[in-house]
Specification:
Length: 253
């Protein structure tokens, strides 16, 4: 997908608008989605601080995840085919329409394509700088979680056990959630991003695995896109600082 070179928040607003237009043309079939309950408690032994480089070999492939979702939606439609008002997967309009599903996948692609992360973390605050994207910030205190109203919607962040959760609630049942999980030895980071729409029966989740690294060196820089798959170019890159270890388990959907 060739997106125009616009500020990332503007592009998200445009994609959100497209999904809202689809929502307005549909009459029903909406299902409530499960959400992570934030406990508002920090985990002192979890330190995300440092520089992180995307590991494409261990991260989800967008096209594979999209195909999997379509298959699951079709199985669900087949199981409920005898019920009145059953949906047609991939149709032009309505719940689980092609525009709704593709829009969800494109939004997931857009907000998870950052190849590098730089994270600054203190006792009560974290800032996740994402290359080619806007930063995620959170202040956390014992027994509390943070809620902020923005032009995009309501932002909520906090600890869920050992995982740090960022959630953005958008209009008309749209939401974006990032769940950060650190591997036991601290060398790998999993970021599970889930996009939810009332117009698709299942959430779309992409797991991105990052390796901790020391900045410096040169090599290949790669990106994963929905239409072209993995695209690489020669430019400044980084060298992993630790021996590869198993990726942290993805967040439950």
């Amino acid at each position: 997908m060739n997106l125009p070179r616009l500020p990332i928040k503007i592009i998200i607003l445009l994609l959100t608008g497209c999904l809202l237009l689809v929502s307005c043309s549909s009459d029903g079939g909406r299902q409530k989605k499960k959400t992570v309950v934030l406990q508002g408690q920090s985990s002192d032994d979890v330190d995300f601080g440092g520089s992180w480089e995307l590991d494409y070999s261990q991260s989800d492939n967008i096209q594979t995840k999209l195909d999997s979702m379509v298959r699951e939606l079709r199985r669900h439609a087949d199981r409920t085919g005898g019920n009145q008002g059953a949906i047609m997967v991939g149709g032009a309009a309505g719940t689980n329409s092609a525009p709704s599903i593709i829009g969800l996948a494109r939004m997931s692609d857009l907000i998870t394509r950052s190849p590098l992360l730089k994270i600054q973390q203190s006792e009560h605050k974290i800032k996740v700088k994402r290359e080619e994207n806007f930063a995620l910030t959170c202040e956390f205190y014992a027994g509390q979680y943070k809620t902020v109203e923005t032009p995009l919607g309501t932002e909520i962040c906090g600890w869920n056990g050992h995982q740090l959760v960022f959630k953005i609630l958008l209009p008309e049942g749209l939401s974006i959630q990032h769940v950060m999980t650190l591997a036991s030895f601290g060398g790998k980071l999993n970021v599970a991003t889930t996009v939810v729409s009332d117009q698709v029966s299942y959430p779309f989740t992409l797991n991105r695995v990052y390796n901790r690294f020391v900045p410096g060196g040169s090599g290949f820089s790669c990106k994963m896109t929905l239409t072209k798959g993995r695209v690489c170019s020669t430019q400044s890159a980084s060298t992993p600082a630790t021996t590869p270890e198993p990726a942290p388990e993805p967040a439950p959907q």
